[in-house]
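Q: What does the assembled structure look like for these inputs?
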Amino acid sequence: MKLEMNEKGFKEMSTVKKSFLSGKKGLLVDDDSQMIDILSRYFATEGCYTEKALDGKLALEKMNNNRFDFILCDVNMPGMDGVTFYQQLKGIGSPYLDKIIFITGDSMDHEIQEFLRSINNPLLGKPFGFDDVREAIRRLIDSKVLIRE
Amino acid sequence: MTNGFSDSEKETKPPASSSTKTPDSQEDVPGTESNVPPLSSFLVDLICTVRKSLDEVVNQTQIYEKEYSKNGLGGCFSRIRSDIAKIDFLFDNLLQYNKIATPISKKNTVHNLIESVLKKYQSLLEKRETLIFRRFEKDLPEVIVPDEQLRYILESVLQYVLGLMPSGGGISFSTKPLVIQEKGDEKKSALEKNTHWVEILMIFTRYKSSTEEEKILLGTQEHQTNQNPSDLILQLAKKMVDKNRGLMEVELTEERNNSSISLLLPAEKKGSDLL
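A:
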């Protein structure tokens, strides 16, 4: 029997954990379902609840009814890619723009490279380890705290 | 010594120190060795020298262009600068071509990357008094896995292994080339036949388990139920191995307290193999 833990369950569990990720909520956007599944299970060990989306369009739908502390988004995806996803958010003036960490693969065309250079979002190059992910999110969250202060 | 490893293996204690460089290691930068032909470096040097001279000519020309513009000679100097810009463009292309066309031969990459990863974890290995053994095959073929990805795989596997090991345990690294020609070998049925492979085998001491013997096939539902981060690290590594058409096998056994992780990675074909 497969048990799925809901967000409430994660919040209760997260009180026990001491990780900075504990109690946070993330959105994982990647067409590689295996990858986001592994990431999701890793975040669960840190007491962090995650939602998964296989492309930018599904991610936008998830964002309608949820609040996220960070978004991990692959750049290259079939359907709506990371760049279009960002531009869509920008178009509606979304506050989530600076909560996106882009995941980049082995190869990127010139336009995508230019796009990533033009924005100030953190990048996570594949392959990455859990330490890298944690560090990228920590920096993202810390920078937000500094801005607020 | 009661660690259960063969005495014939090379032992390092503490691990991965400066003495860990293998005798057949021929480079300082792990993973790559550029074997640039002398002509190529000569060409690059020559272009750089000529470019420097041309830069000086351009600077002088700019001064004279302003000075003689009233005499109607400015156009001549402008043409000189324009011609030099064309030569400069040609040099750019030549250098670019040289970069693409110069073959970079790699040697001993697998061993160098193993050493590099061990070095990164040196302090932790020392702290835990971990013994490192090496049995490296001389003239091991190169693998087609990109260096960065191989480093990632090795590092993830080491992280996983360290999570299972007691203090004072041992890890043995061995490498060997494999040629798989027969379909019969079930273990390697997932691999393509008639191809060349490199095996990286890590045998390590681990904490005793209550189960007598377990053979974990990563990615199976049974394994995925485990929520341990080190298991997830290994799954990411397994994903990377799969992506590179390799095979990772994890065997956790009670026999002599030793367990193993085998990495089978596709080797680069030599010129003679391609015929």
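The mean pLDDT of chain A is 85.
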